[in-house]
Amino acid sequence: MDTSSFADRDGLIWFNGELVPWRDANIHVLTHGLHYASSVFEGERVYDGEIFKLGEHTDRLIKSANILGFEIEQSAEEINKACIETVAANNIVDGYVRPVAWRGSEMMGVSAQQNKINLAIAAWVWPSYFDPEARMKGIRLKLSPWKRPSPETIPTESKAAGLYMICTLSKHQAEAEGYDDALMLDYRGLVAEATGANIFFVKDGELHTPTPDCFLDGITRRTVIDLARARGIKVVDRAIRPEELADFTECFLTGTAAEVTPVGSIDNYQFTPGEICQQLIDDYESCVRQRAAA
Fold first, then answer.
1. pTM exceeding 0.70
2. Residue 137 annotated as catalytic
């Protein structure tokens, strides 16, 4: 993996309709997206040169923009084509794709009706999100003091940049105390998600996962639910109280970056990655590789 600054790399970035040298894909300091968080994005994985569930990610990008009140100029078909072009131009076999759309700098202030909507797509080689050794024995989570907000206070159905500030705060605090990530509750005090991934628990051979009514119903989350049901595993989508953590035997995270990552502990609650975790790790790996080979 390239460890240089993300601003100083070789390669090409698709920027408003053309591939430009990586270091030239710049924006002005008075860009509205920087000051007012009017920006949406996606995270996509490349397996064997193919972007997993590209269409679903593109559809969500367009929906996220619409929720924030702006329209991406390019069609879904054009965005898909641009993502594929960017992966090919950078010779990515296994990696990550980041499409991002934002309001530009034509107006500076809360109002931004006249601002140009920009779209860029970058792709790079990216291995496992968590340390492989830690991942196999189960990562450690800390309960975050920050909570997922009510959908009446912020557009929680959008994958919007502004929603991730509390995730960064939560993850930084957890890492500073020796943890791998943080578990966030929602505004009601119910279990929600990790800082960039959905969460699942195992109890009596069944999967339990929080209802995504104030956070994203992840594409990987939905994929894993389908894989579990294909194995005959019952999936229970419900409100989960934090005191119920003592009742679960296994726990894992799901996300484009995290894939399927077992959890060993959340604060003082202990979990043992077992058969269901391993089955779903294997099934997910088979799913993304088979789709790439198709």
1. yes
2. no
